[in-house]
Predict the structure.
Amino acid sequence: MPTLLANKYKINSVLTKENIKREAYFEKKFNGVNIRKLMDRSDTIKANIKPILKADNKGNLSEADIDATCAKYQALLDKADAALKGLATPFPSPDQMENTKKDIKQSVELAKEMGLSTTPKWHVFAVHCFPQHERLVKEGWGFILDESFIDREVSSGRGSA
């Protein structure tokens, strides 16, 4: 148990160096701004966390297992980041729309494969955000204007896919 607590402290210090902080509310979880920073810096964070996991490993995992786990988490963060950036791209081309759709699908599938919870936020991401983004592009708006737009669309009944 002391190793686990030490690892958590060390990993949190890596995140703090990247200016990614847990909020004092909501059970000390990350908010959207910190999640975006986490996604944007996934390669640097992985590079700094992997040696911590390897150094403190007591033979429970092979180095290959640690490498594979870190690579999966980085891939998930990278795919989710690409999907969010795709949703924020004004007036995307048909190819950009298709890539965003694939990034969303792949990030949800990877999260499921890793045993991570995919509801309700992943559901909103895949089932509501992209269809609304697609509709707005077709109607000439260009992209989702803000997060409250999704809430209004779902409340009005137009937000279901």
